[in-house]
């Protein structure tokens, strides 16, 4: 096997730090392999089933492809579909598929055919059809697709022939193609699924992945190490890296140390940017991201079921201090959910000014003259939209103490944090959102629609039917001025109800050894090593 030849010629030894319960493992790494220090473990090996940034970074672009993708300028480009046609009424989209695409050959699956239309139908019908034999695998949760109400958009998917597929929609949808270009709309192998069903191992489809992407899974040690090997039959380009290792290092200091000592070639969410920039062997890069960091109020729990209390809290928080202390000045204050570079951003929205005096007055009006006690859940991982939730929580804790509100800061291990959030145990939470594509619907629907309460991305648990109706109307027209007007109305509702407090729009940073060449970061979605090399 080629892998054995490569191992025999390996010339570098590296050590990977594990959790306290794990043993240290020494592995030989070849020069054309790369170690990426990630901040956490993926929650799934199928991005259809999980929307967390950690999962998307680790798997979406490494293991899988979509029918279409985004170009660097955010236009839509061919991928597994070489071309497509949209009817004049916008209700039918026909995709013409490539004929030369190989699925991964691994220790646990060997494909006997190339990618075809059956794989497309399987990948999406699993999501759409509640009676599909694989629908309830991974608990039947497909967050992104459920957030955008995919089943209400798609009427039917038809196989025209082995290399032609037609999506029939109930009605025209202005963001449909953008949704199919996201990191979640990946194509799975129906042949692999059929084998798993025959062997009564259907759960393996999201645990032992098979895709068409540039890398294939070799091994995984949760909380420690994720190892990929090159997919030698990758259809798109010649992949330079023979091996890609995700070294899971939750400590931001730990990741920086490993970069400085050459134990990692690239690190996620770097700290100490000046130290990195001063090192002649390192490079700090940034990309402008469509994101929002926010404080979400659980609108089902007192006292945050009262919008007067939510507004009082918003007036008590000093956003400028947060931008300086948490983002190092590398972010802008968010006055609204949509960032200023969104075409649907309403410039007329006035921010909630920082005014402890006004905050106290509003608490008195709401019946909390002597204040109250509350919790803030601070996520335990770093994100571009919030690089240090614990520090942010402490700043807010100090701000709120000035108006008589006592804050307890709560945090858990990441998977536990997400699980308990989904149960609605929190009062408030510091979280955020990184957009999957540039359409404004990708901010508003996942964060605040009624459907996203069910799927779990609406952490405010806020549901407003007037707001939902505006979003639906905006998707039914391609007239940009009509859409903009509808989104302006939707933002006005948010500003009045304040289910969450926008705090910051930030940039995403990454640090690498200068030996690493090629583009990794994009405005949307996870990192991509398909065209990365190491000199």
TrEMBL record:
Please give one Gene Ontology molecular function term for this protein. Answer: peptide transmembrane transporter activity
Read off the Pfam families from this record: SBP_bac_5
Recorded protein name is: ABC transporter substrate-binding protein
Alphabetical list of CDD domains matching this protein? PBP2_DppA_like
Keywords attached to this entry: Signal
- GO biological process terms, semicolon-separated: peptide transport
- Residue stretches making up the Solute-binding protein family domain: 76-451
Q: Which GO terms describe its cellular component?
A: ATP-binding cassette (ABC) transporter complex; outer membrane-bounded periplasmic space
Signal sequence residues = 1-20
